[in-house]
Amino acid sequence: MAKPGADVGKLAQLAVEAKGCTRCPLYLVGTQTVFGEGPVGAEIMMVGEQPGDQEDLAGRPFVGPAGGMLDRALAEAGIERTKLYVTNAVKHFKNEPRGKRRLHKRPNRDEIQKCRWWLDREIALVRPRLIVALGVTAAEAMLGGKVVLARQRGQLLEFPGAGPGMVTTHPSSILRMPDQAARRQAFAALVTDLMRAQKLLEGLEKPPS
Question: Taking CA 63 as the corner, what is the angle to CA 92 and CA 202, rounded to the nearest 5 degrees?
């Protein structure tokens, strides 16, 4: 097994290399590459769809409203974010300018596939024991096919080429709920899924030290 210290350096170098990524046209749209962050050896890696407006400006994943929602859910589930590795399937913010605002646009299959080159290397260096895909786009990126979130969420799955995984909703979907009652219900479901991820992790065989 590779030495963790060496992989820390390799991951840092990978993040530097990703800043100059031109693998798909999204580098022309986003302000900057938003690479993942977290420790090498993190037991859980969380994969979202793509950075949002605030992440694009800050250059860090999950620091906007959806990140705040995720932080709340993690706290409720008793999970420390600093022990996770968080990243996205796509590293640039795909958007459509609308006046002073930039509206989110869902990345297409080609953009996701071309960015998978970076995600595969993150996975190889971090070596998570469980990957949690947040939302349909991330789930389909990890599974390589169509996903029905309502049927597959919370289950132990095998992500081809990446190992054990689980899918759940993206925290941004909670922010789009029509009323407070719906948001509370969706938030509680996300917390339940995160607690489920912890249980699944406990049941996985630990790699040799």
Answer: 100
Which helix (H) or strand (E) element contains residue 114? helix 109-126
Provide the pLDDT for residue 209. Answer: 57
pTM of the model: 0.94
For residues 188 and 160, what is the distance between their CA atoms, to the nearest angstrom?
29
On whether residue 208 sits in a domain, the answer given is: no
Helix axes 109-126, 136-143, angle to 10 degrees: 70
CA distances from 12 to 40, 83, 93 (A): 10, 17, 21
- Give me the pLDDT at residue 99, please: 86
For 97, the domain range is 4-203
Answer yes or no: is 23 within a domain: yes
Note the Cα 32 to chain centre separation in Å: 17
What's the total number of domains in the chain? 1
| Mean pLDDT confidence for 96-122 | 93
DSSP state of 2: -
Residue 209 lies in a domain: no
Q: Which residue has the tokens 């963790």?
A: 4
Average pLDDT value for residue range 88-108: 92
CATH code (residue 125): 3.40.470.10
List beta partners, residue 37. Answer: 86
Token pair listed for 30: 């986003």
Contact yes or no for 154/166 (Cβ under 8 A): yes
Contact 88, 50 (CB under 8 A): yes
